[in-house]
């Protein structure tokens, strides 16, 4: 024991940390007390090298209290210390660590280590996510980090699949490609598909409908003034939904690479497209064949043109993404669509600050100055700084214009 005690005075923080851990694990009262004091001093040290060094030895301790020490290190102001703590979490199968590790996914410095820790914690991670009471908050976690979908894929348990199903059902047509791909990969690993067929069909139906809606909207807005941003968003979302459709169909069509076929269908070479089309027609289940083939046709469907006001009403009432809503709002602003004013005014109370700001921008291009001032005043106290600044700027401009008119 004496050589270990002497190591507590070593100049290397790593040696000191390992010595303190060894003394605690030996269980001898004197050594235990000395080791605990040494660990405490290292945790509280102003020198981050000691806090980094103590993380791994603490995680391997076979005593109560190690979790609290790791939680302290996870909140450390230094990124190097947090990284060491995250790596140490992989050695510590404690459920209490999971909710404290997840927020580190949002940070680019710690995201990779946090993902590795959550994968190592495995069932504890899946259990924590499955027990989440608020589905909206759970979906928000996945929205903030695509890593969560990949993490659940690596864990691969049925509990992981249950979490993905829950988030997919909540997100509906706005489900991300990462979510859908993770869902498909776990289903493909199961011994039989039939237990999951009904839910799989509901997700596929949702994605096909979402792709069709965006394709139709592309046709209806093709000549709308100020549509450039909107058209770009719709094309991007159409591609995402088609990617999701092909990923889901790939669960059944295991003999071909569905994503490769999808990309070949977009090839400029007519022969390549024809071959891909032929393969697709042969592997698609009959139930879905006609709908999917129709969606792969690069030609837009025949559709009547829609004005900005009609589009705003439709997008507000339908579960389109925020980006589509912003695109329609921006088009309404550029086309100065007077008949869209009621919908634009309605969006001044939208939960998203970006939508409120864009609605105010649109209002400024269309609305009468007097009415615009009345709409701006309440927004001076808006929770979003950009909205407050725009409202203040518009009020100042309106006031200056009014004074100039009076002087004339």
Characterization of this structure:
- The protein is mostly helical.
- The termini are far apart.
- The protein has three domains: 1-91; 192-306, no CATH class; 307-408, Leucine-rich Repeat Variant, CATH 1.25.10.10.
- It is 71% helix and 0% strand.
- The chain is flat and about 75 Å long.
- The protein is built from 24 helices and no strands.
Name the features.
408 residues, mainly alpha, Leucine-rich Repeat Variant, 24 helices, flat
Low-confidence stretches: none
% residues in beta strands? under 5%
Helix content: over 70%
Radius of gyration: 29 Å
Structural class: mainly alpha
Helix tally equals 24
Order of helices and strands: HHHHHHHHHHHHHHHHHHHHHHHH
- Strand elements, count: 0
Termini, distance in Å? 95 Å
Shape: flat
Main sheet makeup:
none
Task: Tally the structural domains.
Answer: 3
- The residue-averaged pLDDT reads 87
List the helices and strands and how they pair.
Elements: H1 2-7, H2 13-26, H3 29-43, H4 48-59, H5 66-74, H6 79-89, H7 98-101, H8 111-121, H9 123-130, H10 135-144, H11 147-155, H12 158-171, H13 177-188, H14 197-220, H15 228-249, H16 258-264, H17 270-283, H18 286-296, H19 308-317, H20 322-334, H21 341-346, H22 353-366, H23 369-379, H24 385-407
Helix pairs in contact: 2-3, 2-4, 4-5, 4-6, 5-6, 6-8, 8-11, 9-12, 10-12, 11-13, 12-13, 13-15, 14-15, 15-20, 16-17, 19-20, 20-22, 22-24, 23-24
């Amino acid at each position: 024991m004496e050589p270990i005690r002497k190591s507590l005075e070593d100049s290397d923080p790593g040696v000191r940390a390992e010595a303190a851990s060894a003394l605690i694990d030996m269980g001898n009262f004197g050594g235990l007390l000395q080791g605990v004091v040494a660990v405490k001093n290292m945790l509280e040290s102003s020198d981050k090298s000691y806090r980094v060094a103590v993380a791994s030895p603490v995680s391997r301790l076979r005593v109560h209290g190690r979790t609290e020490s790791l939680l302290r290190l996870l909140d450390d102001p230094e990124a190097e210390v947090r990284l060491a703590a995250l790596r140490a979490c992989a050695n510590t199968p404690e459920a209490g660590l999971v909710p404290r590790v997840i927020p580190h996914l949002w940070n680019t410095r710690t995201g990779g280590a946090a993902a590795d820790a959550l994968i190592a914690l495995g069932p504890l991670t899946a259990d924590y996510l499955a027990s989440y009471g608020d589905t909206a908050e759970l979906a928000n976690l996945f929205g903030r980090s695509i890593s969560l979908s990949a993490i659940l894929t690596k864990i691969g348990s049925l509990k992981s699949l249950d979490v993905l199903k829950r988030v997919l059902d909540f997100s509906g047509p706005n489900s991300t490609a990462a979510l859908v791909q993770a869902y498909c990969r776990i289903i493909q690993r199961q011994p039989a598909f039939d237990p999951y067929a009904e839910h799989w069909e509901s997700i596929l139906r949702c994605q096909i409908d979402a792709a069709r809606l965006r394709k139709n909207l592309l046709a209806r807005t093709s000549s709308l003034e100020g549509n450039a941003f909107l058209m770009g968003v719709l094309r991007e979302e159409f591609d995402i939904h088609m990617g999701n459709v092909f990923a889901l169909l790939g669960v059944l069509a295991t003999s071909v690479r569905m994503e490769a076929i999808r990309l070949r269908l977009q090839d400029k070479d007519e022969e390549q497209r024809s071959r891909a089309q032929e393969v697709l027609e042969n592997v698609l289940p009959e139930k879905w064949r006609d709908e999917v083939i129709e969606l792969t046709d690069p030609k837009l469907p025949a559709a009547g043109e829609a004005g900005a006001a009609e589009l705003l009403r439709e997008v507000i009432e339908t579960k389109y993404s925020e980006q589509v809503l912003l695109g329609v709002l921006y088009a309404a602003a550029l086309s100065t669509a007077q008949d869209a004013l009621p919908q634009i005014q309605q969006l001044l109370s939208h939960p998203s600050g970006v939508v409120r700001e864009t609605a105010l921008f649109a209002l400024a291009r269309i609305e009468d100055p007097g009415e615009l001032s009345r709409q701006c005043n309440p927004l001076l106290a808006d929770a979003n700084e950009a909205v407050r600044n725009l409202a203040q700027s518009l009020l100042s401009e309106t006031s200056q214009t009014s004074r100039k008119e009076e002087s004339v």
